[in-house]
């Protein structure tokens, strides 16, 4: 399996940060998840995978890398895993096989990744569409929903040309429609929900770790 260690390759930069609505976002997203967090490394009382779900642009990759670094775990990006197996980028898979074909391949990759332990997995935005995927995520690990507003999602994805579903006349409206359809599914599958908004990535990671620890204590 092509596991991405938390050494943060340069191909997937943090979301764009030039929004007037979030004055603190620039410093937040310039945080380098490759750098160790201050203080001792956190641990969880289990080796279950941590699954991050949410819309495109929610910060799954950026936050996932930081979380993996904080926990001393491997980071896995489901889209990158799928691309490594297929040998082509996600937009090419969409172009050749359509969304239905892509979703089938995505489900297969998810099944394989979910077997790993001690990982933080960033799923694709639509991975929760299949009921079987939601069941797998819910049962095999701890699911964290990274929530963000339509405006924030649009700001973060507006310059990204690798989003096949946003190749429309009105990407903002497309994001709004996708979020409306998917949010109930994100909330259904999630054990924990985190509002990303303008919060610095470092602060999000720092606040998420004890929530993960507390959640597992309550489930014991």
> How widely separated are the two ends?
30 Å
- The averaged pLDDT comes out at 81
**Percent helix range:** 40-55%
Please report the number of helical segments. Answer: 8
Poorly predicted runs are 1-21, 23-31
Label the structural class: alpha/beta
Shape: globular
Per DSSP E runs of 2 or more residues, the count of β-strands stands at 5
Strand content: 5-15%
Radius of gyration: 16 Å
Largest sheet: 5 strands, parallel
Secondary-structure map with pairings?
Blueprint: H1 25-29, E1 50-53, H2 60-71, E2 74-77, H3 78-86, H4 90-113, E3 119-122, H5 131-140, E4 142-147, H6 150-157, H7 171-189, E5 192-195, H8 201-219
List keywords for this structure.
five-stranded parallel β-sheet, single chain, 10% strand, alpha/beta, 220 residues, globular
Report on this structure:
The protein is globular and about 45 Å long. The protein has about 220 residues and is of the alpha/beta class. The protein has eight helices and five strands, in the order αβαβααβαβααβα. The model is unreliable at about 1-20 and about 25-30 (pLDDT under 50). Helix content is about 50%, strand content about 10%. The longest helix has 24 residues, at about 90-115.
TL;DR of this structure?
The protein is α/β, with parallel strands linked by helices and 220 residues long.
């Amino acid at each position: 399996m092509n596991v991405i260690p938390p050494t943060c390759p340069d191909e997937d930069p943090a979301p764009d940060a030039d929004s007037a609505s979030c004055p603190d976002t620039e410093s937040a997203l310039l945080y380098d998840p490759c750098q160790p967090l201050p203080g001792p490394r956190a641990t969880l009382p289990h080796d279950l995978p941590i699954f991050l779900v949410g819309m495109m642009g929610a910060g799954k990759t950026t936050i996932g890398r930081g979380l993996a670094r904080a926990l001393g775990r491997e980071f896995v990006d489901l889209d990158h895993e799928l691309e490594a197996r297929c040998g082509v980028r996600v937009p090419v898979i969409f172009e050749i096989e359509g969304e239905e074909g892509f979703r089938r391949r995505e489900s297969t990759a998810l099944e394989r990744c979910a077997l790993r332990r001690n990982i933080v997995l960033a799923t694709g935005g639509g991975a929760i569409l299949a009921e079987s995927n939601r069941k797998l995520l819910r049962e095999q690990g701890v699911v964290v929903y990274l929530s963000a507003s339509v405006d924030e999602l649009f700001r973060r994805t507006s310059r990204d040309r690798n989003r096949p579903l946003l190749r429309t006349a009105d990407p903002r409206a497309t994001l709004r429609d996708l979020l409306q359809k998917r949010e109930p599914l994100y909330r259904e599958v999630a054990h924990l929900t985190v509002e990303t908004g303008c919060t610095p990535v470092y602060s999000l990671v720092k606040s998420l770790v004890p929530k993960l620890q507390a959640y597992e204590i309550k489930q014991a």
